[in-house]
Amino acid sequence: MNANFLIALREGLEVSLVIGFLLISLVQNKKQHLIKTVLFGTLFGIIFSILAGIILFITFGGLENTVKEYIEGGIQLVAAILIFYFIVWLSSQSNHDISEQLKSEIRFKDNSISLFLMASIFVIREGLELVLFVLSNSDTHSTRSILSIFLGIIAAIAITYALIKTTTNLNIKFIFTLLGILLIFFGGKVFTEGLFQLIDAPSIFENIAFYGYVIFSLLVLFKKNLISFSHRNN
């Protein structure tokens, strides 16, 4: 499974859930006339993110190799930190908590400008995060990368539709946990590559860094399960 697909699925899932909850809130509060404002804000955020991504990719590609290596290393370390932050957040959430926290992203306003800014800023924030992750992936190839991102976003929208618009009772925590496990290995990869772009060290330390990141992240993700299992066996 392509790393860009997983990243797009994770970012797209959060965006589509928040926008979906916002649209439902408008319907429930009989503010259907403001739905177009949210959709336009979402569209603006998508277009802005795409243009920003194109500019960043062009700029990054035009850098000298030495400078490019250092910047790429820094981006990879930031991406690894963001993945670990997601794991820490996820480890402390229940399925109900995640739903409530996603809904709490919504600051309900009946003002068109506020709703437009809310939708566009949220999409831009997640869109730029997606660009950062894609830049950090040294295996990225343009055509395959674009296709993977597109499929990831489509999958995120489909999951959100099943969650919100049908009677299917999807477990958000399970979905995010599965994504978290897969992203941990991607995080270990970019952490190792980023670290050793910036410093010289024997290759054995690359394996230590990779497995150290992966094992520590998995322990953080499943700490509640491990503690619960330990208590049951004592």
Tell me about this structure.
The chain is mainly alpha-helical and 234 residues long. The chain has one domain. 83% of the residues lie in helices and 0% in strands. It contains nine helices and no strands. The chain has helices spanning 3-28, 35-61, 65-91, 95-104, 112-136, 142-165, 172-198, 203-221, 223-232. Helix 3 (65-91) packs parallel to helix 8 and helix 7 (172-198) packs antiparallel against helix 8 (203-221).
Show unreliable segments: none
State the share of residues found in helices, binned by percent: over 70%
- Give the count of structural domains: 1
Look at the helices and sheets and give the structural class: mainly alpha
Layout: helices, strands, pairs:
Elements: H1 3-28, H2 35-61, H3 65-91, H4 95-104, H5 112-136, H6 142-165, H7 172-198, H8 203-221, H9 223-232
Helix pairs in contact: 1-5, 1-6, 1-7, 2-5, 3-5, 3-7, 3-8, 7-8
Short description:
This protein is mainly alpha-helical. Helices cover 83% and strands 0% of the residues. α1 (3-28) packs antiparallel against α5 (112-136), α2 (35-61) packs parallel to α5 (112-136) and α7 runs antiparallel to α8.
